[in-house]
Amino acid sequence: MTVVTLGAHILDVLARPVEGVPAGRDTIVVEEIRATAAGAAAGTAVALARLGNEVVSVGAIGDDDLGDLLAAIMNRNGVDVTGLVRRTADQTSASVLPIRGDGGRPSLHVPGANLTLTPAAVERGLLVAADAVHLGGPDVTSGLNDPAFFAMLEAARANGTIVTMDLLSNLPDLLKGAAAFLPHVDHVLPNREQAAAMTGESDPERAALALRAEGPATVVVTLGGDGSLLATADGVRHLPALPVDVVDTTGCGDAYCAGFVTALVRSRPVAEAARWGTAAAATVAQGLGSDAGLTDLDAVLALLD
Length: 305
Known about the structure:
Pfam families: PfkB. Helices cover 32% and strands 24% of the residues. The chain is an alpha/beta fold.
């Protein structure tokens, strides 16, 4: 199954556990430091590849060492990175995340080249030929908010391509801009805060229904440790999270999307797709980084037994 991930590409550098910044030139010894592919497109691309999909990722990164490392990580995980464009005037987007002992994750972030992505970087035929296209972070790749790109999505959907969408930020202004994509996607998967910011509804169920009224057939609102809400034509249902020991929540949303899309391209019902997403997120939560613990689809689905 071929999936195109399109949007935000970020290099994450994570360390755990970190309870505070050392004073002066003091050093804190931590248990683990990792660099991972992250962002709602790159992180999801790696997770999709780990789950057995053929993945092509499209986005903008810098022509710099960070971009070389990000592309190498993705390529090593089986992602086709020929869709990445390199920018000489902008650095690769990156984040530094000191992970607390309870799994909390404050961050230092540079938006970088993600802000330069435009429809010119997207090959229309690639979208039309794909089994699914996952828009990862259109709120931070606002250059895609363009009638030319929406026409590409509609051509792909007319040819049977499934279009899903996830978001990256919690900034209201960016999220309101992402609402323009809703009529052009089949399934949208915001978290609780994003759904509230986009709709003005603090209740996740009302927010899910409001988003669905804008066009998507399915809205999944992820709720962290409280599970997720699935809104379809049949109504709204709650799916509980799986009980696991949480190490780091980084990338859990990306993993949820990867599990969800993996099920959809295998013609599974959306309710089952949400369960696959739940299991993928639970897997990643048990380790450090957006790809932690993801080995293959069978191992993820074993959590549902």
